[in-house]
Amino acid sequence: MSNFLLKLIALTTMIIDHFGAIFAPDVILFRIIGRIAFPIYCFLLVQGFLHTSDVKKYAKRLFIFAIVSELPFDFAFYGQINPMHQNIFFTLFIGLMTLHLINKYSEEKTQYIPIIIIFSFLISSLLFVDYSFIGIIYILAFYFTRNYNKPINFILSGVVIFLINVLTSAYLQNYALFSLIPIYFYNNKLGLNNKKMQLLFYIAYPLHLIVFALIKLYY
What we know:
The N and C termini lie far apart (38 Å). The chain has helices at residues 3-23, 28-34, 37-51, 55-77, 88-104, 112-126, 132-144, 150-167, 180-184, 195-218. Helix 1 (3-23) packs parallel to helix 10 (195-218), helix 5 (88-104) packs across helix 7 and helix 6 (112-126) runs antiparallel to helix 7 (132-144). The protein is mainly alpha-helical.
């Protein structure tokens, strides 16, 4: 599984999930399929952080698309501006900044790391970002297990996802465990994921929400 293929799986399952949430909320199958998307995005965020040559540029790109996507997100899901729920780009942005700060203090001043994590949980909850602090835990799970060999990494990440879902009573989210299958076969290669293709994956998020919002408005 290349980086490109994982992103394609995440994008496809996310769009299916959003379609189900907006137009067919009673069809649980759409939501089950959609549980695959977010853990893959979290995993790819960690991989992007580990391989990027410019974290600030990466963070800036996430933040810009978070701002651009917010109105399409609100109108697609709520039909109006909703300050009580922010789109997934905000979650990924907070997660990336958390990883950056953890890495910064990983050799010296390690006592700051728990404070960074707690602050990240608080800010993601207070800003009502998608997945809230649970999204940050997913990202941290993939980050802190990155140096284990693949089978152990696979198991540990799965245990974390399962326990968080149980503790938060998010039982539907247990289907997110299926995302670990394509993640397990990740080959650390970009595939077709060049710069133009990366931009298309970013654009696809607000674009599909705009389409869904327009369909919801006129039909």
